[in-house]
Amino acid sequence: MAEDKKTNKPAGKRAAPKSARRRAREAALQGLYQWLLAGEDAGAIDAHMREQDGFNKADQAHYEALLHGCVIEAADLDAVLSAHVDRKTTELSPIEHAVLMIGAYELKHCIDIPYKVAINEAVELAKSFGGTDGHKYVNGVLDRAAADLRPAEVKAAKR
Description:
Blueprint: H1 20-38, H2 42-50, H3 60-72, H4 74-82, H5 94-109, H6 115-129, H7 134-149, H8 151-158
Helix pairs in contact: 1-2, 1-3, 1-5, 3-5, 4-5, 5-6, 5-7, 6-7, 7-8
């Protein structure tokens, strides 16, 4: 089978285009990363993210909810996560921490997104931006957090 020389994938197969929500999550992740590292004002980070190429293709309402919601609720989200992580959230890599915050926020507030989708999207963010096996850690933590944040949905899925 012929391969595409740029991607080493079978020729003719291209990655599916990113959804507007995926783009929103990626932008929010980058903003949260900056916030976690530098402690910059969320408004300044927001303004910077909006200037990035391709931002107009993101679901802007979802981006705003994620970035500002995670910053405002950081302590509450960390409290949820702390029950399921093996160390203090401040000791996590900033990427994993930000991904977990986004996942926990979506599990807590975005009921229109099935919990498995919220977890999978966080795992995909960790694969794209995080360390080698960070996505496995994210998956485990959010899977356990989902049982706390969406018990009825998790229970129904396990039947």
